[in-house]
Each structure stands twice: as structure tokens, then as C-alpha cells.
Amino acid sequence: MTTLSDDNALLSPALRQRLESSDAGIRRVALLELADHEEEDLLPWLVAGLTDSAPEVRAEAAARLAGWETPFVVQALAGALLDGSAAVQAAAAQSLAELKSTEAGHALLPWASHPETFVRAAALRALRELRLPEAVDPALDALAHESAVVRREAVGVLGWLKQSSALPQLARIANEDSDAEVRRAATGALGLALQGEAAHVQEALLAALQDPAWNVREEAAATLGKLRLDAAPALIEALDDAYWQVRLRAARALGQLKATAAVAPLGRALQHEISNLRKEAAIALGEIGGSTAIALLQAALTDPDPEVRKLARLGLTRWQQPA
């Protein structure tokens, strides 16, 4: 039950009475009304809801504090990450993830090194899109954490920061982490490499293309294409991967690389039963061009899928060949 003194005119006697009610349901509805005022002067009352005896009230308070960027609110929400209720913790983590200001990020930074796993992961997640340079060190430290969730959030922070000094660590994580989802995230984060640094990560990406987990291989193929790395032989091999999702990304990457050596394998992909793969093969052949690619695209004009036929026509148009 909230017990604060406040003379703010917006806090009517009736609203205050409901906030101090012995009924948790009434207190929760009163918090909703309080939040609707969107007045900073009333924040202490809303924050006080985080200490209510009822978890549903505390969770509501945590949710309604989303969007407030003051250090006072950030600290209160971070403290709620330690609440005994999972619902309150989740609401606080979500509200923190919506932070947008640098000031709020600085208030949250110390929590990114908290000993509690959930708190640390939630803080890193919230810091990710804020792109604070000061978040590099806690994120690098978190790469060695025992929790895969914490390591994954740390990778996200480093990826959003596009911190080139983190590339060696990310390359190691991409190939060596015990958790497939962490390896996948790190593989994608290697896409932050600048043109002059791309060679530094190529070995790690080629290794990731052989990862036991298909989603890591898929991410590796996509990142190789994004960085325009000379990896055509490995990507051509990936066109025969057991998972069509990996084949799809490999086809897309080969088109981005304009790999002429991939024309024949892409032509075979145009016969695959999965239409999404045929679409990507058509796009790639249109990007690569050449007489053989054009002939394959002309043959694809009779594909049973209208989208494949459309993409084949677009590819032919690109090389000024009438459909």
C-alpha cells in the first residue's frame, strides 16, 4: 500500500484514497489513472507502486514507468529486476528495454555488471540500442559469463556499437561458444567489420559456415554476403546444405558476390522443390548475369510459382533481355 505525502493538485483526495486502499485491485486501477496524467511530479507515487505488497500492483507500476527516462526511474526499475515475482522482473526489464536517452543509459551502466544473472542480462539488453561507448567494457566482461543469456546480450551490445576492437573476441565466440544461439549472434555481429577489417573475420565466418547448428551456418552465409567477402567456393558448397534455410542465404550471398562460378549450382537450385530457394536463385542469377545465367532465367519463366517467374523476368530485364 502506498504511503506518500503529496500536495500536487492532480492527486485528488479520491485518487489518493484509492492508491492507499487495502484492496490490491483498487490500487492497481488507481495506478493506471495516475499514469494517465503523465506528470513527472507524480512519479514518486508511481515508483512507490514498485514496493506494493501485491505483485500484480508492482508489475503494473513497472509497466507504467516505461518511457520515463530520469535516473530516478531507471534506478527504481533496475531495482525491480531483483523483485521476487517473475512478472515484476519481466515488466521492469521490458520498460528498461524501451529507454532511449544517453542519460538513462549512464544511470543503467552499473547494473550491467551486477552479480545476478537476470539483472545483468536485462541491463545489457537495455543498453544495446543506446550505443553507449562506455558499455563496451561491461559487455566484453560479460562474454565470459556462465549464462548463455548474458553472453548473448553482451554480443548484442558489441554488435550495435560496431566496435571494431571487439572483433577478435566476437570471432572467438562465433566459433567456440558452447551455446548455438550465442554463436549465431556473434556470427551476425561480425558483420560490423569495416571493409579494411573484413579479412580479419573471414576465417571465423568460414568456420561458422561449418558449424553443427544450422542457424549458425545460415547466419554465416548471410554475413559473408553482407561483407562481400571472397568466399564463393564455401558458399557454393553451402548450396548443398541439409537445411534449405542455409541454402537460401548462400544463394543470396553468391548473388551479392556476383560469383560467376556459382551459376551452374544456382541453376540446380532453380529446380528445388522449395519455392523460396528458387526465388533466391533467380535473384542471384539476375545479379550475376552472363549468357548461361540468362538462359537459366529464361527457362525459369515457366516456373509454377508466379513469384519465381516475376523474379526471372526482372533478372532478364536487368540484362536487357526481353521476357
Helices and strands in order, then pairings?
Layout: H1 13-19, H2 24-36, H3 43-48, H4 55-64, H5 71-80, H6 86-97, H7 102-108, H8 117-128, H9 136-142, H10 148-161, H11 167-176, H12 180-189, H13 198-208, H14 214-226, H15 232-238, H16 244-257, H17 263-269, H18 275-288, H19 291-299, H20 306-318
Helix pairs in contact: 1-2, 2-4, 4-6, 5-6, 5-7, 6-8, 8-10, 9-10, 10-12, 11-12, 11-13, 12-14, 13-14, 14-16, 15-16, 16-18, 17-18, 18-19, 18-20
- Oligomer state of the chains in this structure: single chain
Tell me the fraction of residues in β-strands, as a range: under 5%
Total helical segments: 20
Largest sheet: none
Provide the CATH architecture of the domain at 232-323: Alpha Horseshoe
Outline, from the CA principal axes?
A: elongated
Question: How much helical structure, as a percent, in the residues?
Answer: 55-70%
Task: Report mean pLDDT, rounded to a whole number.
Answer: 92
What does the model show?
- The chain is an all-alpha fold.
- Among the domains are: 167-229, Leucine-rich Repeat Variant; 232-323, Alpha Horseshoe (Leucine-rich Repeat Variant).
- It has 20 helices and no strands.
- The protein has helices at residues 13-19, 24-36, 43-48, 55-64, 71-80, 86-97, 102-108, 117-128, 136-142, 148-161, 167-176, 180-189, 198-208, 214-226, 232-238, 244-257, 263-269, 275-288, 291-299, 306-318.
- α16 packs parallel to α18 (275-288) and α18 packs antiparallel against α19 (291-299).
- It is elongated, with a radius of gyration of 26 Å.
- It starts with 12 loop residues before the first helix and ends in a 5-residue tail after the last helix.
- The model is unreliable at 1-7 (pLDDT under 50).
